[in-house]
Amino acid sequence: VALGNECILCSDATSRDGVTGVANCNKCTAPNSAPGTATCNTCQDGYYKDQSNACQKCTSPCATCETSATQCTSCPEGKYLNGNTCVEDCGNDKYADKQSGECKTCSEITDCTACAYNDDLHLPICSACDNSKVVRTELDGSTTCVDLNTECTTGGAHFKDDSTNKCLLCGDNTNGGVEHCKTCTAKGQCDSCVDGYVKTAGASTCTACGANCATCAEVTKDKCDTCKPGYFLQGGTSPGTCTPCDDAASGIEGCATCTFSGSLTCNSCKPNYKASGTGSVTCTKTCEDDSACGGTAGACGATVVGSDGSMKYYCSHCGESTKFPIDGICKGDSDKGSNQCSKGVCTQCADGYFLYMGGCYKVDTEPGSLMCSKATTAGICETPTPTAGTSLCRGQLISSSPCWGAGTPLARQQAQVIMPRPTSGSRAARRARLHQHHPRPAWHQRSARPATAARNLPAAGTAA
């Protein structure tokens, strides 16, 4: 409600400056003058507007209602709106539509008398028909009611089973059909197979196409007509061999889906790559872990400078709670060895490893060897590599050597990155000197590791 220059909540019934709202009102119209009461237009969820302009509570099991407490307009989770009431079971001639939260009639499928909602297909599946019709399941999983004698075999994807009076898919091998068969002339008589399979010469059987083929005419890997997503026809001609979009020899690094028309075009990138450009996109690696540390639930925040000077990114937190950053890659229990890890991060490392950004790294294997050459038995880096411009102290990186972080907050220690020591006079050296006097804030490269991991580390500034 707007009164002069002041806004008052429609639900504020305490009377402010002579204007009173309506309890539990969601939208209202202000009175013409003060003193006065707002006119409620709609009530909050769980309430309805009565004839006296008051909002009254709906009764169970309604989630929302109108005109009266028992006239439901929506239902709580697990119940469905049937008319103006909420029910758990819609009955045989109706099905519970989970998309709308309502009971809908099976007759939406012509002549269907009994059905149930299929969660995978997101549609009702008929189980019984009237008017002497039978259920026919289509190739996409949907159902229709057809006349067994005149409509069953229309389209060629079904056969009539006279012994059971059923209309069955040609590929229904549990009831006399041929597995993976698409069209047939009679029970057990396959004419053509579904995509990815080819009819065996001289037999009514379907055999899988060669590796990575979507469709084929012959069962060999170099006779593909079309390819599965993520692959392309080598040379762009068919029949041919299907090659991965990111094939090292002829593909594009990091490419997830592609097309070939004269030249290879990348359409989208893998999860651990970033797409840039238009037309044929360029894929830039953003994480050394192929799963991108488990997707959005994980974090690829452990930065290491590679032997070629390029920045590389490793896992600092794994999206799957049963995987942990070992050498920067999310691995399972069988690979963590004696390292102490839980809930997607490591908190203490075993002999031969050191702790960095939520993960345990071997000192004698990249990327660990790029940062540290010797670790204590407690899993703490003792001797950083000579090329490192910063030191490792108690498993954390600090701004200078040897462990100058006596007064450095732990957050700042976690924010540091191991960089190669720049040569004197270089631009990198000047930038390093600038950062020494004006260090980057702690949020610049904050670790994704939970606070519990940090609390298990010795205090900042303790000698390594």
UniProtKB/TrEMBL annotation:
SMART domains noted in UniProt: EGF, FU
Record has Disulfide bond as a keyword: yes
Disulfide bonds: 43-58, 62-75
InterPro entries noted in UniProt: EGF, Furin_repeat, Giardia_VSA, Giardia_VSP, Growth_fac_rcpt_cys_sf, TNFR/NGFR_Cys_rich_reg
Domain of life: Eukaryota
Record-annotated TNFR-Cys domain positions: 42-86
Region listing for Disordered, in residue ranges: 419-464
The TNFR-Cys repeat ranges on this chain: 42-86
One of the Pfam families matching this protein, by short name: VSP
Regions of compositional bias (Basic residues) in chain numbering: 428-447
Keywords, comma-separated and alphabetical: Disulfide bond
Record protein name field: Variant-specific surface protein
Organism the protein comes from: Giardia intestinalis (Giardia lamblia)
